[in-house]
């Protein structure tokens, strides 16, 4: 079974001015003359982690990673409640990717994304299909109303994580629980740390409650990173992911010629496999894998095997 490649350090990095007062952090690692591939992190707002470099053979790939607007090492950082998210939208993230590609003098690249990264990958490929050689997608997130209902109402994942849901729900007064997303938004975006920090902690505890089939220790985030993650995630959820009204499935005809692999855990409680199946039904040419012993995490053994198998196959 395939696993992660050994740790690798960047050979180049920088900050790229993408307009609207924003700079995004980027890094490249692996083989400077290798096949270009870009990794899209999840969240939105999660930022890049060193382990994300290890999905690719560093001898074969020129691996590009970047922190999306207002998170990670990008500036300004959403951990400052005074930082506006007005210019943080999916079309602008797509434009940032294209500016980064041009900045790095890359003609075409493989696009790899998981969870929210799969959303952004689909949006980018549909906007710039001529710039994408292949796609590797994991934990498909389509950001449809029914997908949000699964995550943020008592009729979805709450049934499988009742204690975690109760903690998430009970952090909001009973009178406001008819719309938990809106109630959290009022608190997460409040400038007072006594208001926004408890709300951000409760929001992120629910976000991270169901990442893997078997429980693992959640990542440790300081308050600044935690607030940025919560603010950006809520910002996108509250705005339908800033996607077109017809959604991502309507644009599949623009990318169906691109070789692609879709991977989803059978017991993914964050992005249940129905979303991956819906994408595959619209895009039958894409290779499709359900991993029987996995949840949402990209590092779970069966999922990791399928992802690295795909990048290995596409490296030639």
Automatic annotation (TrEMBL):
This is Proline iminopeptidase. SUPFAM superfamilies: alpha/beta-Hydrolases. Its EC number is 3.4.11.5. InterPro entries: AB_hydrolase_1 (IPR000073), AB_hydrolase_fold (IPR029058), Peptidase_S33 (IPR002410), Pro_iminopeptidase (IPR005944). It comes from Actinomadura miaoliensis. One of its GO terms (molecular function) is aminopeptidase activity. It is found in: Cytoplasm. It catalyses: Release of N-terminal proline from a peptide. Signal peptide: none annotated. Its main location: cytoplasm. Residues 38-297 form the AB hydrolase-1 domain. Keywords: Aminopeptidase, Cytoplasm, Hydrolase, Protease. The gene is pip_2. Belongs to the peptidase S33 family.
């Amino acid at each position: 079974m395939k696993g992660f490649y050994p740790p690798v350090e960047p050979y180049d990095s920088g900050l790229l001015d993408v307009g609207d007062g924003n700079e995004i952090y980027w890094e490249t690692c692996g083989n400077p003359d290798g096949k270009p591939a870009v990794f899209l992190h999840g969240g939105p707002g999660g930022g890049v982690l060193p382990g994300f470099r290890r999905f690719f053979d560093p001898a074969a790939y020129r691996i590009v990673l970047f922190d999306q607007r207002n998170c990670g090492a990008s500036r300004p950082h959403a951990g400052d409640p005074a930082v506006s998210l007005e210019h943080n939208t999916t079309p602008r993230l797509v434009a940032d990717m294209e500016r980064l590609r041009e900045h790095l003098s890359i003609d075409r690249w493989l696009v790899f994304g998981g969870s929210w990264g799969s959303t952004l990958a689909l949006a980018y490929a549909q906007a710039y299909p001529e710039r994408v050689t292949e796609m590797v997608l994991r934990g498909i997130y389509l950001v449809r109303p029914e997908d949000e209902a699964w995550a943020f109402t008592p009729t979805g994942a709450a049934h499988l994580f009742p204690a975690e849901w109760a903690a998430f729900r009970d952090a909001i007064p009973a009178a406001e629980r008819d719309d938990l997303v809106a109630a959290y938004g009022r608190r997460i975006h409040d400038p007072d740390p006594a208001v926004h920090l408890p709300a951000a902690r409760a929001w992120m505890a629910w976000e991270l409650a169901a990442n893997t089939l078997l429980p693992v220790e959640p990542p440790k985030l300081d308050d600044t990173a935690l607030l940025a993650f919560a603010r950006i995630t809520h910002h996108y959820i509250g705005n339908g992911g800033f996607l077109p009204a017809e959604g991502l499935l309507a644009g599949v005809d623009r990318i169906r010629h691109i070789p692609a692999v879709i991977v989803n855990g059978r017991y993914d409680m964050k992005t249940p496999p129905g979303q991956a199946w819906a994408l595959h039904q619209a895009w039958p040419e894409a290779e499709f894998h359900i991993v029987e012993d996995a949840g949402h995490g990209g590092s779970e053994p069966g999922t990791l095997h399928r992802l690295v198998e795909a990048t290995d196959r596409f490296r030639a």
